[in-house]
TrEMBL record:
One annotated GO biological process: phosphorelay signal transduction system
Listed Gene3D superfamilies: 3.40.50.2300
A Pfam family that the UniProt record links to this protein: Response_reg
Modified residues (4-aspartylphosphate): 77
Keyword Phosphoprotein: yes
Record PROSITE patterns: RESPONSE_REGULATORY
Response regulatory domain location: 28-144
Annotated segments matching region Disordered: 1-22
Species per Swiss-Prot/TrEMBL record: Pseudanabaena frigida
Keywords on record: Phosphoprotein, Two-component regulatory system
Name of the protein in question: Response regulatory domain-containing protein
Amino acid sequence: MSQYNAIASVPTSTTASSQDVNPDNPPLILLAEDNETNIQTFSSYLTAINYRIILARNGLEAIAQAKANLPDIILMDIQMPTMDGLEPTRQIRLDPNLISTPIVALTALAMEGDRDRCLAAGMNGYISKPLKLKQLARQIAELLVT
């Protein structure tokens, strides 16, 4: 288990849910994703279940957005232009204001060892694409209460 409190598996039900989100102060999610279809799908779904979204389309933008906005959680695509999702994760973990911010890998990489590389870089969770939106919501809720 990594020093970043990784979640080994997401339970099918958890005590946390999108219904637990405070409507007056919904959690802020940094979505680092370059695929327009994924951006629209994830943003629409997460906004509908009462999360606020900020967007980064590459690794450099992810670092800048994380430092400027201090999100409650970061969803990090691994395969992005300019810089893959692992390097921004490492850099974000160096910032004392972001060291405990949960980071979840969203990746089409499903090869053996990819999950371990993501967790070793400082990510707390790993979801392979294509993903189920309810699975994503469960993982977000679980990480926000830990």
